[in-house]
């Protein structure tokens, strides 16, 4: 009750101020009372723990004219921020129903009502309002932005693309990258039934964002599926220029391509050059170990990886070394193998550079901050052992 009292008393005071102001404007009518009886009626409702009725009274006291529209909007926004969208909706509907509003004020009230519906989760009504605003002259920039949010939530990717293209140029900082992600979503949805259409969609993604790693990975998978391995190699190797952090995602696909073209020697040369550029890229080191094992045998792979781990220790590398020598040291190896297996499975494999969200599955849309393409693959280095070995709570 006290919370409502502190919240609504400023509204009551504002109503009183408006009535007093009206009184001084009309000095020639001294018989007019300074306060409407409804003002005291609203206070009575408030003190008797009937806030809904009090709100209705105070809203009625705020006569809608050019001087009080902002007061209505501020009051409704307070309600929406408090999570009381139904009350905000009532105030904005009351505003819109008044014929005295100017065109600009009506557009503003419609935008706010649409935001109320968004806050309440009534997306269909919000969509209708914002689409109505798009058809009017002087469309507020909030309309296409909110429609973009709605279509993303509803996974209507083509509508999201269309709406993103309507966002004003000065607000398009990340819009092109968003459009590329939407094209990737469309391509992902048809990849099994129509590879040609999927490739066309991915070309559109690259058009809007030349550094879209997701589009390159999807294109590489499609090209492998249809047997165009050499073309897939060019696409997947280009990921190094787009964002080398995603190379761990591309390496297994590249192995498939080089293996199917009987060209693993070239793959080995490329991996070695990759490690000169990115010495801490554990996934490339492990892939190189796999090639050494195939070409020269297990012992050679053990020696290679043992030397590498002295310079660049990692949990994945230690685990692979144990796997290569699991036939030796029968009592010690199983124990160490269990430890490294636990560490690898317990550790998060991906993290968001924007909000720090981490998990074991790749998400192109971060579940933590709802930003696209901010999650990166990570590798478990020995510096992270202490944290991973802590008991789960």
From TrEMBL:
<dbReference type="GO" id="GO:0009898">
    <property type="term" value="C:cytoplasmic side of plasma membrane"/>
</dbReference>
<keyword id="KW-0802">TPR repeat</keyword>
<feature type="topological domain" description="Cytoplasmic">
    <location>
        <begin position="21"/>
        <end position="393"/>
    </location>
</feature>
<dbReference type="GO" id="GO:0008653">
    <property type="term" value="P:lipopolysaccharide metabolic process"/>
</dbReference>
<dbReference type="InterPro" id="IPR011990">
    <property type="entry name" value="TPR-like_helical_dom_sf"/>
</dbReference>
<feature type="binding site">
    <location>
        <position position="352"/>
    </location>
    <ligand>
        <name>Fe cation</name>
    </ligand>
</feature>
<dbReference type="InterPro" id="IPR030865">
    <property type="entry name" value="LapB"/>
</dbReference>
<dbReference type="GO" id="GO:0046890">
    <property type="term" value="P:regulation of lipid biosynthetic process"/>
</dbReference>
<dbReference type="Pfam" id="PF14559">
    <property type="entry name" value="TPR_19"/>
</dbReference>
<dbReference type="Pfam" id="PF18073">
    <property type="entry name" value="Zn_ribbon_LapB"/>
</dbReference>
<dbReference type="InterPro" id="IPR019734">
    <property type="entry name" value="TPR_rpt"/>
</dbReference>
<keyword id="KW-1133">Transmembrane helix</keyword>
<feature type="binding site">
    <location>
        <position position="369"/>
    </location>
    <ligand>
        <name>Fe cation</name>
    </ligand>
</feature>
<protein>
    <recommendedName>
        <fullName>Lipopolysaccharide assembly protein B</fullName>
    </recommendedName>
</protein>
<keyword id="KW-0677">Repeat</keyword>
<dbReference type="Pfam" id="PF13176">
    <property type="entry name" value="TPR_7"/>
</dbReference>
<keyword id="KW-0479">Metal-binding</keyword>
<keyword id="KW-1003">Cell membrane</keyword>
<keyword id="KW-0408">Iron</keyword>
<dbReference type="InterPro" id="IPR051012">
    <property type="entry name" value="CellSynth/LPSAsmb/PSIAsmb"/>
</dbReference>
<feature type="binding site">
    <location>
        <position position="355"/>
    </location>
    <ligand>
        <name>Fe cation</name>
    </ligand>
</feature>
<dbReference type="InterPro" id="IPR041166">
    <property type="entry name" value="Rubredoxin_2"/>
</dbReference>
<dbReference type="GO" id="GO:0005506">
    <property type="term" value="F:iron ion binding"/>
</dbReference>
<comment type="similarity">
    <text>Belongs to the LapB family.</text>
</comment>
<keyword id="KW-0472">Membrane</keyword>
<keyword id="KW-0812">Transmembrane</keyword>
<keyword id="KW-0997">Cell inner membrane</keyword>
<feature type="domain" description="LapB rubredoxin metal binding">
    <location>
        <begin position="350"/>
        <end position="377"/>
    </location>
</feature>
<comment type="function">
    <text>Modulates cellular lipopolysaccharide (LPS) levels by regulating LpxC, which is involved in lipid A biosynthesis. May act by modulating the proteolytic activity of FtsH towards LpxC. May also coordinate assembly of proteins involved in LPS synthesis at the plasma membrane.</text>
</comment>
<feature type="binding site">
    <location>
        <position position="366"/>
    </location>
    <ligand>
        <name>Fe cation</name>
    </ligand>
</feature>
């Amino acid at each position: 009750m006290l919370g409502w009292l502190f919240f609504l008393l400023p509204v009551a005071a504002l109503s009183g101020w408006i009535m007093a102001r009206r009184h001084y404007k009309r000095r020639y009518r001294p018989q007019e009372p300074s306060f409407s009886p409804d003002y005291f009626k609203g206070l009575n409702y408030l003190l008797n723990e009937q806030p809904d009725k009090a709100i209705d009274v105070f809203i009625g006291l705020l006569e809608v004219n050019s001087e009080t529209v902002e007061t209505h909007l501020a009051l409704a926004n307070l309600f929406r921020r408090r999570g009381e969208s139904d009350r905000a909706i009532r105030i904005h509907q009351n505003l819109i129903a008044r014929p005295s509003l100017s065109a600009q004020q009506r557009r503003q009230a419609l935008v706010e009502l649409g935001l109320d519906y968004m806050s309440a989760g009534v997306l269909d009504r919000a969509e209708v309002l914002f689409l109505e605003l798009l058809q009017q002259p002087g469309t507020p920039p909030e309309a296409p932005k909110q429609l973009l949010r709605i279509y993303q939530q509803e996974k209507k990717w083509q509508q999201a693309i269309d709406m993103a293209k309507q966002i004003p140029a000065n607000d398009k900082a990340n819009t092109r990258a968003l459009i590329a992600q939407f094209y990737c979503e469309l391509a992902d949805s048809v990849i099994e039934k129509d590879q040609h259409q999927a490739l066309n969609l991915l070309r559109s993604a690259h058009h809007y964002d030349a550094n879209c790693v997701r589009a390159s990975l999807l294109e590489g998978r499609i090209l492998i599926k249809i047997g165009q391995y050499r073309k897939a190699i060019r696409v997947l190797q280009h990921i190094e220029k787009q964002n080398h952090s995603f190379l761990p995602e591309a390496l297994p696909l590249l192995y498939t391509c080089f293996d199917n073209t009987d060209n693993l020697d070239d793959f080995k040369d490329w991996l070695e050059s990759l490690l000169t550029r990115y010495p801490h890229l554990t996934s490339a080191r492990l892939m190189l170990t796999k090639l050494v094992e195939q070409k020269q045998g297990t012992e050679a792979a053990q020696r290679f990886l043992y030397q590498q781990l002295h310079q660049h220790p990692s949990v994945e590398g230690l685990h692979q070394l144990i796997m290569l020598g699991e036939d030796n040291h029968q009592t010690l190896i199983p124990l160490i193998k269990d430890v490294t297996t636990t560490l690898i499975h317990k550790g998060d494999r991906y993290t968001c550079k924007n909000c720090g969200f981490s998990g074991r599955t790749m998400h192109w849309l971060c579940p933590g901050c709802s930003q696209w393409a901010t999650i990166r693959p990570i590798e478990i280095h020995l510096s992270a052992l202490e944290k991973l070995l802590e008991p789960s709570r």
